[in-house]
Amino acid sequence: MAIMGSIIKSLIDLRDNLVSEADAEKAQREELKKMLEKAKDTAFGKFYNFAGILEAEDIEAAFAEKVPYFDYNKLNEEWWSRLHEGQEDVTWPGKPPYFAISSGTTGKSSKKIPVTQDMVESIRKAGIKQVSALSNFDLPPDFFEKEIMMLGSSTDLHQEGDHQEGEISGISASNIPFWFRGYYKPGLEIASIEEWDERVQKIAETAKDWDIGAISGIPSWTELMIKKVIEYHGLNNIHEIWPNFRVYASGGVAFEPYEKSFNALLEHPVQVVDTYLASEGFLALQDRPDTHSMKLILDNGIYFEFVPFKPEYINQDGSIKNEARVLSLSEVNGEEDYVLLISTVSGAWRYLIGDTIKFTDVEKHEIRITGRTKFFLNVVGSQLSVNKMNDAVKELEEKFDIKIPEFTLAAVRINGEFNHSWYLGTDADIEDSKLADALDEALKDANKNYKVARSKALKGVKVTKVPPELFPEWSGANKKKGGQVKMEKVMDEEKFAEWEKFVKKQLSS
Questions:
Q1: Where does the record place a coiled coil (predicted)?
Q2: Is 18 helix (H, G, I), strand (E, B) or coil?
């Protein structure tokens, strides 16, 4: 009997029984109040009169009235850029010890997002919540003795003046508590290797020495790592070397598009747990089985607001119009898309993180990420969100019994008329035209706006099959491999032309 695992599981259960869930709206109000109080003497706090907001009868309403929306570019140009000039107490007290480099999926250059010590602590607490939540799943006691593979970016952070820079997963891993280091794999030495291919090679070489019970990471890179381990050791599946692998913590993107190809690497199913760790903070986690939804973390240094994701509130570039309506947690409805705004203990205020979400359970405060504001394809009124695209691609997988872990598309003009051009990552031997017809029908059935657009300005749908490995190679060519890097699901015409040039070159070489 796994005595130590039973003890650990009992302690987790006891902790959950002793700590009752706080009233959600009260918790959010308290988080906002604490943040305003702490930041009231910063340059930002003085400019927007946080002290006055704190005296208001309705602090949340006063905050929404006095402080405008910020996307990264606006907040960086007006405020965060001062941190790089040596100023302190800008949007949060002191100077941040870290900046998270967001490789992201949008924008032409990386973002540098401040990560304060308060945010490091917030992420640490969220990680403990995630581990604690595993007691809600049907896992044997000995699972809690197994090692955890955290497949993020390099922990070898770069010193830049008075701070260090790296991706958020690398910053988090470099700050893991000492008591957890015995469980953490691949370990700080391997995790500090900068080059993705070299790091994964070392993981493959060392894999036989570990007893992995859980893996966390972005699906596309996790798949590539598992494939490398299988190839290196000549295995049929990953359970032949890690028989106790039972939990996969997905993050960054929806897992469903990868489900079929991921499961092909396993001997038996594992429990998939969704998490929402962004460069700006750890926002939500799945805390129960039988769902793919995640519970917002409402008492941990992040205040949430929600803008209805409607065309009248959103500009073509994905930004929010000034007159857009904003809702607090108490005002949201289920199954409606919202643009997420966050204020954090890293000094982000009413910040457009770029994601759209929907509440799958309002009472439980559970959400799903439905897409990116900049990946909302609405050039000719088709109003396609990423979740609709994912659903349509999943229908293709089921209809033709194939795997399509990656895709990208753009609205392109052919002879002056708009068409949707899709690239599907698949090895399936099916005619492109059949895939195009099935994809078109699936989207018409799922989205009435798309159906109307197809009868008018959207003239056609084109599908091109390419090997799935081209997608990570594209990411590697444009940014770097691994870590938080995610593939663009929707491109503008300029970026799409670069993608097509890249594909042509790779297929001809």
A1: 15-42
A2: helix
Task: List the chain domain ranges.
Answer: 1-374, 377-508
* Average pLDDT rounded to a whole number, residues 335-358: 93
Q: Provide the token pair at 396.
A: 């293709």
Give the pLDDT mean for 202-213: 96
Identify whether the C-beta of residue 164 lies closer than 8 Å to the C-beta of residue 96. no
* pLDDT one-digit tens code per residue, 440-451: 999 888 877 788
Read off the pTM: 0.81
Nearest to 403 by CA among 383, 424, 384: 424
Which two three-digit tokens encode residue 416? 């002056």
Encode burial over 392-409: b for 16+ CB neighbours within 10 A, e otherwise.
Answer: bbbbbbeebebbbbbbbb
Q: How many residues does the chain have?
A: 509
79: DSSP letter? T
The single residue listed with the structure tokens 């870590």 is: 483
CA–CA gap between residue 6 and residue 431 (Å, rounded): 54
- The whole-angstrom separation of Cα 471 and Cα 403 is 14
**Residue 438 CB coordination number (10 Å):** 18
Q: Which residue type sits at 58?
A: D
Amino acid identity, position 436: A
Domain 1-374 falls in which CATH fold? Answer: Rossmann fold (3.40.50)
Distance CA 160, CA 216 (A): 28
3-state secondary structure of 113: strand
Dig out the tokens for 291 from the structure.
Answer: 């769902």
